[in-house]
Every structure is written in C-alpha cells, then in structure tokens.
Design brief:
mainly alpha, two-stranded antiparallel sheet, PPR_rpt, 1% strand, 69% helix
C-alpha cells in the first residue's frame, strides 16, 4: 500500500491476532507506534487479544500507559462498551495488575457514571494504593452519595492510609450535596490538622460546604480568614449572602468584589443576575446583561437561564420571552423561570401554555415545575386546569410536597370554593407553618373562615392571646438611582 493509516494498521493487527500470529501482531503494533500513528480503541482491543492469547505480560506492560490513556479518555456512554472490552482483556492478559491501569479503569467507570462497575473494579484490586481509593471516594462524593463516600473514607483510615489534599475536599463536596453537616465539620477539622487548609482550592471547598449547608456565619468566618481570595472564593461567599437572604449585604459585597477581584467568570455573572432578580433591580440587571454580551457569556446556558429569571422576576416578561426564544440551548431551569415569571405577575394562562409547550418539546418536568404552574393557576383561579395538573403530577410519579398541596388549597380558596379548600383530604402530611406565632397566618385563616361562614372557627383564631402572636413588619426594597433603601412596616425611606 502506498499510504498507510491507523485503519489499515488496525486491520492488519486484528487479522494477525485472529489467525494466531500473535508475535507478528505485537511487532506490527510497535511498528505502528514508531511510524507516528495513534492507535484507536479497535487497535488496543486487537493487540490485547494477541497478548492474552500469548500470555505475554511483558509486551502488555510496554503499552500499559497507552491503555491507561484510553481508559481515561473513555468517559462517555458511547465509549463505555469499548472500554469494558479493554478492561476485560487487560484482566485476561495480566495487565490489570499494573496500578496505573487499575486506577485508570476505576476512573473510566466513574467518569461514565457507572459507579457499580467502578466499585467492582476497585474490589478486584488486591493491593489498593491511595490513588485508587481517591478515585472511588471522589466518584461517590461528586455523584451525591455522601454516606457511601464517608463509609469508604472510614475504610481508608482503617487500612492505615493518610488521606491527601484531593480526597478530603471531594468528601466535603459529597457532604454538602447530601447535607451531612457533622461529617463535613469533621473533615474540616482533619484538613486543619493535616495543614491542607492553606491551599486556596481547599479553603474554597470548605467555604462552599458551609454556605450550601446553610451555615452562613461559619462560611463568613472561613472567607475572612483566607489569605488569598480568587474568583471562586468571591463567588462562594456572594452566593452564600444571596442564599441567606441578606440581599443588602450581597449588594455591598458586590461593590467590594468588583474592586478586588480582577477576573469574573460565568458563575459570578449568574450570581449577580440572581441578586438583581431577588431585589429586584432592573437597572443593575440591564447593566449586567451588557457586560455578559461584551464577554460573550450569553451563550452559556447557566447565564442565559439567570438572565431569563432576572427579567421575569423584574416583570419584564417580553424581554424574558425574547431571550428565551433566542437561547442556543435551553434547559429545565429556563423553562421553570418562564413559568414562575408568568405566575408571579398574574399571567396564569400564559404559564399553562408555556408548560404545555415544554411538554410538547420533550422537556421532563420536575416538582419545582409543578410548584410554579400550580401557584400560577391559583393566582388567577384556574381551578379546572389546576386539578388536571395536580393529577398529571401524580401520573408522572412525582410525589406531591406540602408546597403543591398548599397551592391547591390556595387555588380553591381564591376561587371561592372554601369548603373544598377546608376539606382537602389528599394531604399525606400534617399542615405546617414556618412561623406559628406569625399573626399574618392567623389573619389569612380568619378571612378564610369568614368567607366560608365558619364564625366559630374564626372566633377561635381571633381569640389567640396576643402574647402568642407576633406581627412581623413587612420589609421590601425599591431601586432609587441604583441604590436600594429599605422600607420596613410604616417607616419611610
């Protein structure tokens, strides 16, 4: 042949392997490498078959690092089948005894999301090194299986191994995803004991753990103690302020962040847009949108969803819909933002139409979607549509939460069907109230009983001792020339 390529080499190696010319197959593989050709999955399967037939471990050792590269690259579902073939053949040839290939195999399964096969491969290792422990623990932690990751970590300690700066931060991520607060605090203590907290990436993980677990004060202490702060640090504490509900504190921090942080990434702009949405602050939102366009971040699906949410919450629904329609790729978050935006501003029918459009395009809804659509129906009294959607949620296998039931009660009550609201028997849990001594909840219940003609029940609510009921003044912000003065109760600006 005048021109050889990887396909012709692979066919030749495969043919020699099949007819039993295994040494010739291995020699051809070496010639292929020396000729500058990069083997593919088919080539590796063929040459490993030859090694397995010959029981030639030594030639396999020569190519083990190449197989390790293949296993590391096979991280998608499409490549998983070929990677499993390579794994099986490496077991047969004895190549799996090499620690690099062992770790690469586990990493391949972890990256493919096949944790069960990853654990089987991990269990097959007779002498486990720290690298294999780190890969399997990180795999379970980052997939949200915090308890399993902690269990493996305890086994690591029992084996007498010292965890490194890669194992412990991944455990913290798993603890934050599974909300294992006590376990995460223990990991934090161990990081301090081993001296790993000095690394900025480790400090950022600690900060993010406390923020996501709702421990705002602790996250603030970690941030203040950091000697070096990068964009990840600022993003984490900024998101913590927003999650904590301290929007004024977040707006002050934003000004400090813009002065001290030289580089802002897509996560930063997504958080800024979330702040603009929650305040709401349309002027800041428009300015942020301009920055996003200049940096070409608007194509990012996270930033795009945040833009839609910001415009929807600020009441600029036409802008939200316009940007939603031109997004290069949408996701469930952007659909939910549009549904919530329509519902928040009293466009219940438009929210229902958006839901049906989402279903027609094959987007799978979740419980958050139904909270938004049911509250939208309640806001404009769409009783029939609300009932249909509530039944549809059960058909989809989504277990109704108390928010869904509250929306149904609100739907019946607003439509004047107070008896149906009062007799709503499908709630599998006890009704709750976040603030049992908040007088606003009692005032709403009193009005409901009056409209239903239940005067005795109304008297019981109104008869609650004043000491048990506390009236919490309303708080809100308005945007005045880019500033946000707080309005509380009957106070002025």
């Amino acid at each position: 042949m005048p021109y050889l390529n990887v396909v012709s080499w692979s066919i030749l190696i495969n043919a020699q392997s099949k007819i039993g010319s295994v040494r010739e197959a291995i020699d051809c593989f070496r010639l292929m490498i020396s000729g500058g050709f990069q083997p593919n999955d088919f080539t590796y399967v063929s040459v490993l078959s030859a090694c397995a037939t010959l029981r030639a471990v030594k030639p396999c050792k020569e190519i083990h690092w190449r197989v390790y590269s293949v296993l590391s690259a096979c991280s998608g579902l499409e490549e998983l089948k070929e990677a499993k073939q390579v794994h099986c053949l490496s077991l047969k040839s004895g190549l799996f005894l090499d620690s690099f290939v062992e770790t690469g195999t586990i990493g391949m399964y972890v990256n493919s999301g096949d944790l069960e096969s990853a654990y089987v491969a991990f269990s097959d290792i007779k002498e486990r090194g720290l690298a294999s422990w780190a890969v399997i623990i990180k795999g379970y932690a980052l997939e949200g299986y915090g308890e399993k990751a902690m269990c493996l970590f305890r086994k690591l300690n029992s084996a007498g191994m010292r965890p490194n700066e890669h194992v412990l931060p991944s455990l913290l991520v798993g603890c934050s995803m599974s909300h294992i607060v006590e376990g995460g605090m223990q990991i934090h203590s161990l990081l301090i004991k081993l001296g790993y907290q000095m690394f900025s990436c480790v400090s950022n993980t600690i900060l993010d753990f406390y923020a996501k677990c709702g421990m705002f004060r602790e996250s603030l202490l970690v941030f203040e103690a950091m000697e070096e702060r990068d964009v990840v640090s600022w993003n984490a504490i900024f998101a913590a302020y927003i999650r904590h509900g301290d929007l004024i504190g977040a707006s002050k921090l934003l000004k400090e962040m813009l002065l001290q942080c030289k580089y802002l990434n897509v996560c930063t702009y997504s958080s800024i847009l979330s702040l603009c949405a929650d305040l709401p602050a349309i002027e800041w939102g428009l300015a942020t949108h301009c920055c996003v366009l200049k940096l070409d971040f608007d194509a990012n699906v996270v930033v795009g969803s945040s833009l839609i949410d910001m415009y929807a919450k600020c009441g600029w629904l036409n802008y939200a819909l316009r940007f939603f329609n031109i997004m290069p790729s949408d996701n469930l978050v952007s659909w939910n933002s549009m549904i919530f935006g329509y519902g928040r501003h009293g466009f219940g029918m438009e929210a229902v139409e958006m839901f049906h459009r989402m279903e027609a395009e094959g987007i799978v809804s979740n419980e958050i979607t139904f909270i938004g659509i049911l509250s939208a129906c309640a806001g404009v009294g769409l009783v029939e549509q609300g009932e249909i959607l509530f039944k549809l949620m059960k058909t989809k296998g989504i277990i109704p939460r108390i928010e869904h039931h509250a929306s149904m009660v609100d739907l019946f009550a607003r439509a004047g069907e107070t008896k149906r609201a009062y007799n709503f028997k499908s709630m599998p849990m006890e009704p709750n109230t976040d603030e049992p001594h908040d007088i606003s909840a009692r005032a709403m219940a009193s009005a409901l009983y009056v409209s239903a003609g239940l005067w005795d029940e109304r008297a019981k609510v109104r008869g609650t001792p004043k000491k048990e009921a506390e009236k919490v003044p309303g708080r809100s912000w308005i945007e005045v020339k880019g500033r946000f003065p707080l309005l509380e109760g009957s106070r002025g600006i």
